[in-house]
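Section 3.1: Structural characterization of target chains.
Under the original work plan, the team committed to producing a structural model for every single-chain target entering the pipeline before any wet-lab resources were allocated. The record below documents one such target. The sequence was received from the expression subgroup and is listed exactly as submitted; it comprises 109 residues.
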Amino acid sequence: MTNRSGRAGIDGDQNDRRTSPSDHNEPSAIDVQRVLTDQQFSRWAVLVADGAEPLPSDLRPVQQEQLAARVRELRRARLRSFIARQVALDMYRNANAAPTAPLHVAGEP
């Protein structure tokens, strides 16, 4: 199953592998908090940073804090990149603009 952004699920395929607690044979499956692999962690960070998925609430607190920190890093990097592109675009436009006559200030010859 794809998410709202049309991307494959977190596991990288088109199948939704999320299961309800009743699908588990273990009686304590509801109480178990999920632990992400490195690949899942990276994928979740990108999906959350994109706004395609909310921050998962069923992670262990340490991993949830790490994921939130990684999402912040990704968003900051994207913001820096966006600002740098805008500054470069402004500089490019100014460098290629037709030269203009200097402004005449009233009272000067």
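Residues 13-30 have pLDDT under 50 and may be disordered.
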